[in-house]
Design brief:
Structural class: mainly alpha
Protein name: 4508_t:CDS:1
Strand content: under 5%
Shape: elongated
Organism: Cetraspora pellucida
Number of strands: 0
Number of helices: 2
Length: about 45
């Protein structure tokens, strides 16, 4: 259970870092170019 909690915390910290430094946005932009799709509303879809 401790490893699961540790992994979750590490994921959240990493995600926050990638959002802060812009890495995640660069990755999404690269995917858009490759796929020819827009992922601008990816977080709002249900």
């Amino acid at each position: 259970i401790d490893m699961a909690n540790w992994s979750t915390k590490l994921f959240k910290l990493s995600l926050k870092k990638y959002i802060r430094d812009g890495t995640i946005y660069d990755f999404i932009h690269a995917l858009e170019e490759k796929d020819g799709k827009s992922y601008s509303n990816i977080f709002w879809k249900k």
